[in-house]
Amino acid sequence: MNMKNLKGEQAVSGIFDLFIMLASGVRKIFEYLKFLFVPKIVLTVGKISDMRTCGLKYKFQYYYNLDEVLAKEYPEGLIGQLIHQYIYKILNKEIKVDLEYISLIIMQQVLENFPELTPEDRLYYEKNIRTIFTNFNCWYEKHKQYVYTVNSDIVVKHNGVRLKMKCDCILVNRDNNFDYWVIDFATSKRNIISEMLPYDVNTNLQYFVLKTYFEKKKKKFKFSKFFLLYDNLTDFVEDWSMQEETRKIISEVKEKLRNKEYELHKGPLCGWCGYYDICPGWKTEREGDKQKGIEPVSPDTTLFRIARETPGRMALSYSKMSMYIQCPRRYRLCYIDRLGVKPQGFFSIGSTIHNTLELFYKIKPKKRKEPSIDELFRLYDQCWISAGYSSKQEEQEYYQNGKKWLTSYYEKFVKEQYLPAYMTEEYFELPIGKGNHVMIGYIDRVQNNPDGTFEILDYKTDPKVRTQEEVDKDLQLTIYYWAMRNKGIDIKRLGLIFIRFGEIIYTTRSQKDIDLLDDYVKNIGDKMWADGEKYISLKKEYETKGEKPPEEKIEEIFPSKINKYCGGCDYLKGCPKEQLIKTEYQDKLLFKVSETGEIIDKEIQQELTTTEQPVSPKAEKL
Questions:
Q1: What angle separates helix 345-360 from helix 373-383, to the nearest 10 degrees?
Q2: What is the number of other CB atoms lying within 10 angstroms of the CB of residue 110?
Q3: What are 482-505's pLDDT values in tens digits?
């Protein structure tokens, strides 16, 4: 090889090496820019919901990629997936709507996975599948020519994260009101009415993604949920306070993921978690504790889930049971018909205060006796909930009032007195009512005092301080006392802290109260179950006629009752006693009834003589 060719090859090689170096440099620059500007965290509605429910579950599922180990699933989950698959096929014109064929194919797959289904269960699921596709087909025939895209993903960037949403169906507009119509098909037993849909958290997350996407495209859109089982097509109407809260939720989840804060959170949904078998929070319930002489009470799943799936057993909480006692109609609409609830400013400030003090009493100060009031205010801002306020002005008024309450609380109960809590938001789930039912709940704070005694403290933001007699009769405190005794902790005293007024009213309970409570809850739980069965039978009776049960028949089973909380009831509109509440009883309610439905604080001028705050069975016996 001559020198000329060698030099030529060396030159080409040098140019190639230079090109490789430049390409490598460009790639590194691109990767650096990508690191700076492309969010690494990708969140879906499901991921956000999982992280908010339990950080440890999120860690198991998305961080460790562990397969869920719970053996049994619900048939509803599989049916929902299959229904969506066939809806997508229909929308894409891959198949025609054939109720007989689709129902047969879906049920065949269901029976392959759940061969133990009873004939009654099979008929139930077949009926639901037919109803869903009948309702879907009626809608589809009217709108099939406008289908734009099916089962598509929308991804947007917001505040350092990518938000991803799956759209079941997007239609092009037929008029000038909007450019696109986004439909989300819901196949579960849940049915949210139009008045409550703007306050559903997951729906707000979906809407937030869509709004971010279409605003960037400068296009108008409409978002609707179609609850197929009930033929309920509901348009989403934006509520500013819920969208503000949605932004906070996204930011909170982002920060927890970045800081790797995968906090365990026990609650009523744990029985349906695919990681129950390995969750450390349920180790004692699952395996027992030989050293403490504790036997396992729920080796395979939680008592709450067992109660939910066992005929004759009620899964109870204080709020659920008290709502039934105060007004069976409200209980039916909330817990059986599941129509949804509307956030209110009063409840939001209450939750904010509770969450703030929960975090505050977890602090273990090192250099000083108590955390500073600035730290308390920092937690207050961190925990602030914006949902439910009628305006920015109202939210600001509540915010300032909340700071005043906390300032007074700090001066009276924290300075020179601070002790970290022994437990905060302690979850319990225990058999009750002669073992027929299960009671769950969260205890605000359990304090271990310097003298070795324990006390329970519960926060109240009510606009009125209760009397000593009312606190002595309080059913919620009796339940808390019973729960802690079951956990092996003897409570010396219990107190309600009225945050607005800086007052604590103390009381005590005894074994006698526990014995009375057990009988009391059994009777109430049994009646709740029996009324629920009557209601189901009534609905089935009229379904065979193709009709809805008359309201007067339903009222016989779940009657409306006037009580001091009627002013803040989500279901006051349409209540048989609505006019009576708004006229004769309007000055006797804890909250003023407004025309727009929001709660207005006011002092009670006179106690109602009808159903009041549920009391401990001890009081009834006395």
A1: 130
A2: 21
A3: 999 988 899 999 999 999 999 999
- How far apart (Å, rounded) are the C-alpha atoms in residues 55 and 161? 18
Strands 437-448 and 315-317: parallel
Give the separation between CA 424 and CA 446, rounded to whole angstroms. 6
| Residues 41/254, Cβ–Cβ less than 8 Å | yes
Q: What share of the chain is helix, strand, coil (3-state, %, to 5)?
A: 50, 15, 35
Residue listed under structure tokens 């932004």: 247
* Collapsed DSSP state (helix, strand, coil) of residue 132: helix
> d(Cα 268, Cα 57) in Å, to the nearest integer?
14
- Helix or strand (DSSP H, E) at 305: helix 303-308
Quick check: 494 and 618 in contact, CB under 8 A? no
Which neighbouring-strand residues pair with 224?
A: 183, 235
Spatial CA neighbour of 433 closest among 334, 341, 516, 538? 516
What SS3 string covers 416-467? CCCCCCCEEEEEEEEEECCCCEEEEEEEEEEEECCCCCEEEEEEECCCCCCC
Q: Give 335's DSSP letter.
A: I
pLDDT tens-digit series, residues 90-107: 999 999 889 899 999 999
Distance CA 573, CA 571 (A): 5
**What is this structure's pTM?**
0.82
* 29 has a pLDDT exceeding 80: no
- Angstrom distance (rounded) from CA 581 to CA 576: 10
Give residue-wise pLDDT tens across range 577-588: 998 888 888 777
Amino acid (1-letter code) at residue 51: M
Burial of 467: CB neighbours in 10 Å, binned 0-12, 13-18, 19+: exposed
Q: CB neighbours of 542 closer than 8 A, spacing ≥ 6?
A: 548, 549
* Cα–Cα distance for residue pair 530/437, rounded to 1 Å: 13
Q: How far apart are CA 318 and CA 520, in angstroms?
A: 13
